[in-house]
TrEMBL record:
Name by which UniProt lists this protein: Tfp pilus assembly protein PilE
InterPro entries reported for this sequence: N_methyl_site, PilE-like, Pilin-like
Keywords in alphabetical order: Membrane, Transmembrane, Transmembrane helix
One biological process term in Gene Ontology: type IV pilus assembly
Membrane-crossing residue ranges in chain numbering: 13-31
Provenance organism: Caballeronia sordidicola (Burkholderia sordidicola)
Pfam families tied to this protein: ComP_DUS, N_methyl
SUPFAM superfamilies on file: Pili subunits
Length: 142
């Protein structure tokens, strides 16, 4: 009776590792971009939630004093480690009453700081000048 060796040869193992490395090379940047898109959508959602909270608080209190964002409304995502920090800016001539900004904790985000004011105007401040299509892409999660 002869026994047949079962297992992988070193060449087969090296080819498999090489193919896995090539796949990982292309998959990791795509994965990171998907995660960044998800974080950007969390920031947009958090801005709208915060604006709704501020409008409700202003309606109930019936004064135009600046409302501070409470815990849970001051970051995105709401639970866990903050990826974006939200802050409310006071009234100015440009924003019509108030403005809420979502600033990324990691400054490598291409969309920069998201801003939503009382009139519903959405904008982004970034190190590079963002054109209206790029701003729209940031807000739509593309």
């Amino acid at each position: 009776m002869t026994t047949v060796g079962k297992g992988f040869t070193l060449l087969e193992l090296m080819i498999t590792l090489g193919v896995a490395a090539i796949i990982a090379t292309f998959a990791m940047p795509v994965y990171r971009e998907q995660v960044a898109r998800g974080h950007r959508m969390d920031a947009v959602t958090a801005l709208y939630r915060a604006a709704q909270y501020v409008e409700s608080a202003r309606t109930v209190s019936s004064n135009d004093a600046a409302v501070k964002l409470p815990l849970g409304f001051d970051q995105a995502p709401t639970l866990g480690t903050a990826v974006y920090v939200l802050r409310m800016l006071g009234e100015s001539e440009q924003n019509g009453g108030y403005s809420i900004e979502a600033e990324p904790v990691d400054d490598k985000d291409a969309c920069g700081i998201y801003s939503l004011d009382v009139t519903g105007v959405r904008s982004n401040r970034s190190t590079e000048k963002l054109t209206p299509p790029k701003v729209a892409a940031c807000w739509s999660g593309k």
